[in-house]
């Protein structure tokens, strides 16, 4: 084959549409070829497409800017969401483990009112239990205060803290007597009558009286909040 024949064959190959479409200049051209092949899109002649190559290059660059912009915005949003989540968790944890004197007094007043109403309705089982819960709200550790109603009597006993009182041993004895009076009736089928209610009421009054003798300012009934690890 002489030089003229080789030159003509090279010119034919360069003008062939398959030669140009098989080797696109950028990833965007590959995407166009994929869509044209699979969606049967009619592409413009090679000469016209090559003449408008700058349009495709500009469009590809624009799409890249949009893609990276959206990726950056998503990353910033995730960072903000994580920051808000961590801040909310810290705030919730801090408030969940701090109980004020006003919260304790409000809870105790509600239980005492419920106990009185139950006694008037001759529901002594509920009345005894409400008096027991009224005593619980005064000395239960802050970490268990808000879920006290969902704990068993034994779990409540383990959550009590009498270390800040001069009469801690006496308080422990009174609390255990109230626990033993309430537990078989509230969680069992032991009958509850008016004498049982009066016994619980007497124990609760003595218990509340002993709480006034504090050995330091760290007791739950002292002014201010108490925090536990």
Alpha-beta content class: mainly alpha
Tally of strands: 2
| Distance between the ends | 93 Å
Q: What general outline do the C-alpha atoms trace?
A: rod-shaped
Overall number of structural domains: 2
**How much of the polypeptide forms β-strand, as a percent range?**
under 5%
Question: How does the SSE layout of this entry go?
Answer:
Blueprint: H1 3-15, H2 17-22, H3 27-39, H4 46-51, H5 53-96, E1 98-99, H6 101-120, H7 124-139, H8 142-145, H9 153-158, H10 168-186, H11 194-210, E2 226-227
Antiparallel strand pairs: 1-2
Helix pairs in contact: 6-7, 7-10, 7-11, 10-11
Question: How would you describe what is shown here?
Answer:
With 229 residues, the chain is mostly helical. The chain folds into two domains: 3-96, no CATH class; 99-222. Helices cover 72% and strands 2% of the residues. The chain is built from eleven helices and two strands; from the N terminus they run αααααβααααααβ. It has helices at 3-15, 17-22, 27-39, 46-51, 53-96, 101-120, 124-139, 142-145, 153-158, 168-186, 194-210, and strands at 98-99, 226-227. Strands 1-2 form a two-stranded antiparallel ribbon. Helix 6 (101-120) packs antiparallel against helix 7 (124-139). It starts with a helix and ends with a strand. Mean pLDDT is 76; it is low at 215-219 and 221-229.
């Amino acid at each position: 084959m002489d030089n003229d024949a080789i030159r003509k064959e090279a010119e034919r190959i360069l003008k062939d549409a398959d030669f140009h479409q098989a080797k696109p200049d950028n990833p965007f051209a590959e995407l166009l070829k994929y869509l044209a092949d699979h969606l049967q899109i009619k592409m413009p002649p090679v000469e016209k497409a090559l003449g408008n190559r700058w349009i495709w290059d500009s469009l590809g660059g624009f799409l890249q800017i949009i893609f990276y912009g959206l990726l950056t915005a998503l990353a910033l949003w995730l960072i903000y969401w994580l920051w808000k989540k961590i801040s909310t968790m810290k705030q919730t944890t801090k408030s969940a483990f701090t109980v004020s004197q006003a919260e304790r007094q409000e809870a105790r007043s509600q239980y005492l009112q419920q106990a009185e109403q139950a006694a008037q309705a001759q529901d002594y089982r509920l009345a005894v239990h409400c008096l027991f819960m009224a005593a619980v709200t005064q000395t239960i550790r802050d970490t268990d205060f808000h879920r006290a109603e969902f704990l068993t009597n034994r779990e409540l006993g383990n959550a009590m803290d009498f270390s800040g009182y001069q009469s801690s041993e006496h308080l422990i004895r009174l609390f255990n007597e109230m626990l033993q009076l309430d537990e078989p009736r509230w969680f069992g089928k032991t009958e509850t009558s008016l004498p049982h209610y009066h016994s619980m009421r007497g124990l609760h009054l003595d218990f509340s009286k002993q709480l006034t003798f504090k050995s330091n300012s760290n007791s739950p009934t002292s002014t201010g909040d108490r925090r536990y690890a």
